[in-house]
């Protein structure tokens, strides 16, 4: 029997063939030659597929490289041209005019109206509002005073969805713990007391669980309220707020964040055996959900208008500071990206859609409802993008998607070499796009030098003073280049690992 051997076979296959040819005639005649033929046929097909896919990727890389001049035009306009500092100036006008924009507030309504009108005046297409229902929690007046061992006013910020204290407040002794494990060990000491969690900052993802779940864990052991050390690696005596979740079937107790400095001071007092007494007063209220909107604007695609590259940031903020960093900057660069392309007369094959989410801070409420409304068309969503970690010096993107899509995105990022933002990290982050990524849609989040992000996060310090116009120019350029090129490529980003690289 003669077996034709393809010249493209790898060394391992040639070794297998040679070994089989050396076998005694008994087995090879009855079994091995037939098996060898099947093996060679399979490997030959694999070689053809590999060659085809390698050529396909090479063609894609060449196609992407052809956008170098367009990318440079976008960068020049954003960084040095007439659009220089535009996203910063727009953000300043927006935040100075509207202020902070907590879910359910009049200010959020005003912010949505402001943006709707601004997007229309900018000449963007299909500007519209999509209705959503969002939470409505109001902080009210709040205060905390240490009464023993010293009289000391505690700077606090009640946590979103917290219940109020009884009228007149709560006065109780304080138990200080550093972890849920310590709380369980000292459960008998917690009854009738405040629990102060003095958890060290490890990372936001690991440490935020104390803000989110501390109240219910303390309530399980009989605590009357919780004071949570603010979730930040650095503090200048500023409390940080945020959303928290009560567990089903567990008594709801008031909960607020205190400063790192006060939490650490209480820990020192407790270590010395000093009795700590605090009076807490909170007048928070939760009202029925209210009507609101996600805000949408587009550049409609020239060939495949039904296919979408989505850019986004959230319009709501907390009720402290201006919400300039979280997430005014992310929203504004998502607007600026479309403005840059419009200025240059660029219309990609697919639709570019900017969405400003409502009620992200309450768990991505507006984005969840958007997903439920649009998931029927999920096959038409090419890439979903979110900026919600600040618009500081950009480094590149974080990306979630197939191996093939990642390889394509890596080629796209090379177009950003002129501004040194070519990094492509793993695992895109974004409360508002995670459901799309979980469903298989490629996702990207802006990756920035964000070491100071959690210094200002959810505080009165989140103002325009945090923002830098040069950094926002660079973020806008990156956002626009990536969105345009991905939307204009001949083919959508692949979702399955079908292409061998």
UniProtKB/TrEMBL annotation:
Gene3D superfamilies: 3.50.30.30, Zn peptidases (3.40.630.10). Residues 294-480 form the Peptidase M28 domain. One of its GO terms (cellular component) is endoplasmic reticulum. One of its GO terms (molecular function) is carboxypeptidase activity. It is found in: Endoplasmic reticulum; Golgi apparatus; Lysosome; Secreted. GO terms for biological process: peptide catabolic process; proteolysis. Keywords: Carboxypeptidase, Endoplasmic reticulum, Glycoprotein, Golgi apparatus, Hydrolase, Lysosome, Metal-binding, Metalloprotease, Protease, Secreted, Signal, Zinc, Zymogen. It holds the Pfam family Peptidase_M28. Belongs to the peptidase M28 family. Homodimer. The monomeric form is inactive while the homodimer is active. This is Carboxypeptidase Q. It comes from Esox lucius (Northern pike).
């Amino acid at each position: 029997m003669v077996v034709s051997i393809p010249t493209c076979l790898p060394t391992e296959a040639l070794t297998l063939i040679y070994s089989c040819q050396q076998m005694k005639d008994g087995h090879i005649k009855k079994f091995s030659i037939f098996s060898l033929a099947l093996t060679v046929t399979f490997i030959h097909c694999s070689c053809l597929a590999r060659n085809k896919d390698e050529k396909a990727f090479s063609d894609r890389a060449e196609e992407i490289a052809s956008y170098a001049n367009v990318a440079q035009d976008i960068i020049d306009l954003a960084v040095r041209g007439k659009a220089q500092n535009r996203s910063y100036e727009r953000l300043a006008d927006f935040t100075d005019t509207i202020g902070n924009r907590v879910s359910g507030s009049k200010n959020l309504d005003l912010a949505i109206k402001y943006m709707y009108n601004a997007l229309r005046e900018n000449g963007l297409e299909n500007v519209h509002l999509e209705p959503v229902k969002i939470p409505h929690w109001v902080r009210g007046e709040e205060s905390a005073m240490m009464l023993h061992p010293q009289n000391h006013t505690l700077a606090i910020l009640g946590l979103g969805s917290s219940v109020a204290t009884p009228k007149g407040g709560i006065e109780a002794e304080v138990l200080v713990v550093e972890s849920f494990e310590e709380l369980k060990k000292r459960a008998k000491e917690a009854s009738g007391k405040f629990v102060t969690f003095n958890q060290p900052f490890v990372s936001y993802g690991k440490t935020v669980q104390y803000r989110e779940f501390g109240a219910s864990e303390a309530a399980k052991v009989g605590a009357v309220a919780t004071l949570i050390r603010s979730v930040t690696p650095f503090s200048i005596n500023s409390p940080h707020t945020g959303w928290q979740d009560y567990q089903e079937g567990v008594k709801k107790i008031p909960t607020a964040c205190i400063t790192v400095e006060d939490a650490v001071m209480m820990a020192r007092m407790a270590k010395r055996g000093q009795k700590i007494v605090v009076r807490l007063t909170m007048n928070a209220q939760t009202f029925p959900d209210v009507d609101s909107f996600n805000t949408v604007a587009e550049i409609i695609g020239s060939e495949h208008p039904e296919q979408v590259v989505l850019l986004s940031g959230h319009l709501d903020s907390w009720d402290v500071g201006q919400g300039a960093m979280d997430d005014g900057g992310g929203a504004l660069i998502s607007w600026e990206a479309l403005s840059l392309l419009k200025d240059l007369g660029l219309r990609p094959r697919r639709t570019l859609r900017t969405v400003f989410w409502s009620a992200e801070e309450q768990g991505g409420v507006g984005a969840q409802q958007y997903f439920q409304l649009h998931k029927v068309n999920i096959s038409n969503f090419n890439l979903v993008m979110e900026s919600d970690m600040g618009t500081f010096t950009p480094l590149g993107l974080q990306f979630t998607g197939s191996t093939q899509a990642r390889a394509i995105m890596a080629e796209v990022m090379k177009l950003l070499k002129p501004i040194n933002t070519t990094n492509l990290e793993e695992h895109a982050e974004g409360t508002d796009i995670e459901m799309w990524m979980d469903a298989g849609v490629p996702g990207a989040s802006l990756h920035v030098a964000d070491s100071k992000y959690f210094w200002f996060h959810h505080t009165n310090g989140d103002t325009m003073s945090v923002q830098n116009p040069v950094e926002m120019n660079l973020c806008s350029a990156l956002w626009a280049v990536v969105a345009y090129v991905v939307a204009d490529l001949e083919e959508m980003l692949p979702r399955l690992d079908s292409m061998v690289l």
